[in-house]
Prior knowledge:
The protein is α+β, with helices and mostly antiparallel strands. Strand 7 (about 210-220) and strand 8 form a beta hairpin. It has a nine-stranded antiparallel beta sheet, with no helix packed on it. It has one domain (about 5-35, about 45-75, about 85-270). The radius of gyration is 19 Å and the shape is globular. It is built from four helices and nine strands; from the N terminus they run H-H-E-H-E-E-E-E-E-E-E-E-H.
Amino acid sequence: xxxxxxxxxxxxxxxxxxxxxxxxxxxxxxxxxxxxxxxxxxxxxxxxxxxxxxxxxxxxxxxxxxxxxxxxxxxxxxxxxxxxxxxxxxxxxxxxxxxxxxxxxxxxxxxxxxxxxxxxxxxxxxxxxxxxxxxxxxxxxxxxxxxxxxxxxxxxxxxxxxxxxxxxxxxxxxxxxxxxxxxxxxxxxxxxxxxxxxxxxxxxxxxxxxxxxxxxxxxxxxxxxxxxxxxxxxxxxxxxxxxxxxxxxxxxxxxxxxxxxxxxxxxxxxxxxxxxxxx
Length: 279
């Protein structure tokens, strides 16, 4: 049981593909209880002393993974038809990259070796491999904390440029600025040994990866995130990530979901050697 929570958070093709509902963390009230309570009046987004919206808080999709409150599923199309399949990073691969991707599978997923993603499996960089994250805002920095792998990213917004004296990193070098009430995060200088997402979803990238994210706190309980990823070495055009809407969680701290050598061995043994389609 020592690593049970980590297995749930990372497992993806190793765990998420199993035909059982999963729960990422036992934090806060159950979705059953939450759904029975009346909705509180919507309050405006809080603001810092400098007038900018305060993005601070623990953000998620409204429930645990697999739970009834988790996002509610994709919207239905006309007359109840399934919506069009959203474009993914790997859908935009150049021909050589597409051929290379077909030779990769779950066993090649860097998260099997406890490496983070370059972006995020659920199309939310704040989540990384999990489904909950925390933002801490100060007068000079916005700090992005990911529960899985206990990762973090410090984003200065005092006008400084990207650092040219640091080595490439898994999640890139980030700088930010305010565009009205929207916080814009620009990331460059990535390593090329991670994937965009996890769970065996083949999504390798190059060291030319560049991401721009836009965070907007709509009200006290809602955070909208938009992002665009470009990688001219492997993509035919930039990938515009579908807008993500997160909800303020009913708890004010994330917990640590670490990754150990024991986890790696279990992931490697469970990872299928061949690729198979994933949604």
